[in-house]
Design goal:
By secondary structure, the chain is an alpha+beta fold. 31% of the residues lie in helices and 27% in strands. InterPro entries: Dihydroneopterin_aldolase, FolB_dom, GTP-CH-I_C/QueF.
Length: 350
C-alpha cells in the first residue's frame, strides 16, 4: 500500500542542461541480493550515474573549477555511503516518492541491501546532495563578487572573469533548483540462471511540494524531495536448452536459447515492488520450464515466457527477447522481442 499522496511540482528543464558522468564505478556492496538466498552476503556491483544540472557555461567561460561539480568528491562520497550501507539512521525509502506523490511502504520494511531500488536511491541522493552543496557555494561566490564588482578592474584576470560571469544574465552559474540523477546498477552475480545477472536503472529529479507556487532558490529543504520518474529492471542471459525450430535438424536435438526480460515504467509504483519480490523465483521458473518445451516458432516460446512472468508471477507488463545463437552461422544471435501485459492473456487459453 502507498502512503497518502502529496502534491509534487517538478521544475521544467533549464535552457542549458549539462551533466557530470561517472561510468562503471566498482562498488562492492556489503549486502545485496545473493543467488543462494543467504542474507548479509557481499556482492559485486558496477554503477554508473549521470548527474544533470544547469549549467556548466559559467565554469567554461571563467575556466574555474569552483563553478563546476567536483566528480572526484562525488565518487568519494558515494564510496563512503555504499560502505556504510544499512548503517544510516534513515531508510532511503523515506525520501523517495513517485511522480504522483506516493511512496512505497513495503520498501521501508525491507533490508536496504536486498532492494536494488534503495541502493540506487542512495546513489541518487548522494549526487543530488552534492549538486545542492555546489549550488550553495556558487551563490556565496556570486554574492562576494557582486559586492566587489567596483574593484574588479584592479583584480587579477581570473577574478575579472568571475565578476563578468556573475554580472551577465546570459551565463548564469549552476543552481540547485533543477537536478536530475540517472543511476544504473549491474549486479552480475545476483541470479544463478541469468548469465548477466540483474540490471537496474532509475531517473530521479528534485520535486517540490509547493505545487501552486513558484519555485525559487530559497525553497526550504523540507519542501523538496527526490522524485523517481522512471525505473527499469533487466534480466539478461537466461540460457536454456530446448527443441525450437521448424527445420528437421532442429527437431532432433536441443539447442541453446537465450531469454532476456525487461520491466520498465513510472518509478516508485506497485509494479516495481512486484518485480523485486518475484525476479529470483521467476527467473528460475522461466529457465526450468523453457527447457521442457518443444516449440516450432520463437514467437510461441516468447509468448510462453511472457505468460509465466505476467499471469503466474503477477507482473503487469514484460518485454521478452528470445534469441537462438546457433540458428545462423554468421550471426551471433537471431530471434524476436515481444511486449505483453496481464490484460493480453485475459480470456486466452494457456
Amino acid at each position: 500500500m502507498a502512503e497518502q499522496r502529496v502534491n509534487v511540482h517538478i521544475p521544467s528543464h533549464p535552457p542549458v542542461l549539462d551533466s557530470v558522468r561517472l561510468r562503471n564505478i566498482q562498488l562492492p556492496l556489503p549486502a545485496a541480493p545473493d543467488p543462494w538466498h543467504r542474507p548479509g552476503k557481499a556482492q559485486p556491483c558496477t554503477a554508473s550515474l549521470k548527474l544533470s544540472y544547469s549549467s556548466a557555461v559559467a565554469a567554461a567561460i571563467a575556466d574555474d573549477v569552483s563553478l563546476s561539480l567536483d566528480y572526484g568528491k562525488l565518487y568519494r562520497r558515494l564510496d563512503e555511503d555504499i560502505r556504510n550501507l544499512g548503517k544510516h539512521p534513515e531508510n532511503p525509502g523515506h525520501r523517495m516518492i513517485s511522480v504522483d506523490g506516493s511512496r512505497r511502504d513495503e520498501m521501508l520494511a525491507s533490508d536496504i541491501g536486498q532492494d536494488v531500488r534503495l541502493t540506487a536511491g542512495i546513489v541518487a541522493h548522494c549526487g543530488l546532495g552534492l549538486l545542492d552543496e555546489t549550488a550553495a557555494g556558487v551563490r556565496r561566490m556570486s554574492h562576494v563578487h557582486n559586492t566587489q564588482r567596483r574593484s574588479s578592474a584592479s583584480a587579477g584576470s581570473q577574478s575579472q572573469a568571475l565578476a563578468a560571469v556573475f554580472s551577465s544574465s546570459s551565463t548564469s552559474p549552476i543552481d540547485g533548483v533543477f537536478g536530475q540523477c540517472e543511476v544504473s546498477l549491474h549486479l552480475p552475480k545476483a541470479l544463478l540462471r541469468a548469465e548477466e545477472g540483474l540490471k537496474y536503472r532509475s531517473v530521479t529529479v528534485w520535486g517540490y511540494r509547493q505545487a501552486n507556487e513558484a519555485v525559487t532558490d530559497d525553497v526550504g529543504e523540507s519542501e523538496r524531495c527526490p522524485v523517481v520518474l522512471e525505473e527499469e529492471f533487466r534480466i539478461d542471459g537466461i540460457r536454456c536448452y530446448c527443441i525450437l525450430g521448424v527445420n528437421s535438424h532442429e527437431r532432433v536435438e536441443k539447442q541453446a536459447v537465450i531469454v532476456s526480460l525487461e520491466f520498465k515504467g513510472p518509478g516508485q509504483l506497485p509494479w516495481g515492488s512486484t518485480v523485486v519480490n518475484t525476479y529470483q523465483a521467476m527467473t528460475r521458473a522461466v529457465a526450468e520450464r523453457v527447457e521442457a518445451t518443444a516449440f516450432q516458432t520463437v514467437e510461441a516460446l516468447a509468448t510462453f515466457v511472457a505468460r509465466i512472468v505476467t499471469v503466474e508471477f503477477g507482473n503487469e507488463r514484460v518485454t521478452v527477447r528470445v534469441e537462438k545463437p546457433s540458428a545462423l552461422a554468421f550471426v551471433e544471435g537471431s530471434g524476436v522481442e515481444i511486449t505483453r501485459s496481464q490484460a493480453f492473456f485475459e480470456g486466452r487459453d494457456a
